[in-house]
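Tokens in:
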């Protein structure tokens, strides 16, 4: 069986299939042989688990997942990689390849069809240009999955796993913490890829919550406030919350009612405080 982390073998494989890298799709293939086995062991899959993978590339992670999981369903947007994957994954009878855009597909239907009610996790090396939209779709869809283990840009990992109420957090941070408990697993250097990107990476795991950490009457209202606050994060909240459709006076009244200082900025608020603001608005 060919090595999918050996540069010369990868080049030969891609050349035979007439494949060239797409910058638009953010394609970087792993050549560090230790990363994918470690990801597969960290995602929580076992012989009773189905794994949904996004962006299998040439199948290096897919192979490792197939060794530890009952079934793997891999979604690949680039049709040019399908014949490559059919070659590299030949011999594995527990892998399904799905050609499509993860942002457009019905993931609930795929999970139901491919895994038939078995315990499910998600594991993927996400393209950096669309990391946040993919994560938000996975979380907001409330899929029946236990965890999401993904490799992302190191800067994104730091932001996603930051504690709410700290300078490092952003709107995505709060959304991630609302739906899950994130943790950093291990770093991955830029030299682990072909072609090598200009940034380092990290693998993180989002353990999906059974219940949100705070009570909120209107989730959409809360996330609208969060998006507005972080959309102009250098401004104080009376000014940034105007992006949520409030007047400055309404924003001040809302902050006063919640006991939040008028000079506070988005990064200083906890998830619970944003929930409280939304709950006051809903009264």
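Residues out:
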């Amino acid at each position: 069986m060919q090595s999918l982390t050996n540069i010369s073998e990868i080049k030969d494989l891609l050349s035979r299939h007439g494949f060239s890298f797409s910058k638009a799709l953010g394609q970087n293939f792993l050549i560090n042989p230790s990363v994918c086995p470690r990801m597969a062991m960290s995602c929580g899959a076992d012989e009773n688990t189905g794994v949904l993978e996004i962006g299998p590339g040439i199948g290096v992670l897919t192979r490792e997942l197939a060794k530890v999981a009952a079934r793997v369903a891999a979604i690949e947007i680039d049709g040019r990689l399908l014949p490559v994957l059919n070659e590299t994954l030949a011999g594995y009878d527990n892998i399904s390849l799905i050609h499509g855009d993860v942002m457009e597909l019905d993931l609930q239907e795929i999970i139901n069809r491919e895994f038939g009610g078995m315990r499910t996790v998600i594991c993927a090396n996400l393209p950096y240009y669309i990391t946040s939209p993919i994560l938000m779709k996975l979380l907001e869809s409330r899929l029946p999955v236990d965890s999401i283990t993904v490799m992302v840009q190191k800067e994104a990992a730091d932001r996603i796993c930051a504690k709410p109420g700290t300078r490092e957090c952003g709107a995505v941070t709060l959304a991630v913490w609302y739906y899950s408990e994130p943790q950093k697993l291990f770093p991955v250097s830029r030299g682990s890829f072909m072609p090598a990107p200009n940034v380092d990476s990290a693998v993180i795991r989002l353990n999906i919550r059974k219940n949100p950490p705070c009570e909120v009457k209107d989730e959409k209202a809360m996330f609208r406030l969060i998006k507005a606050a972080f959309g102009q994060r250098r401004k104080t909240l009376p000014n940034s919350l105007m992006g949520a459709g409030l007047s400055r006076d309404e924003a001040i009244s809302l902050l006063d009612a919640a006991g939040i200082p008028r000079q506070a900025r988005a990064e200083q608020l906890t998830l619970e405080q944003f929930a409280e603001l939304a709950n006051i608005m809903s009264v």
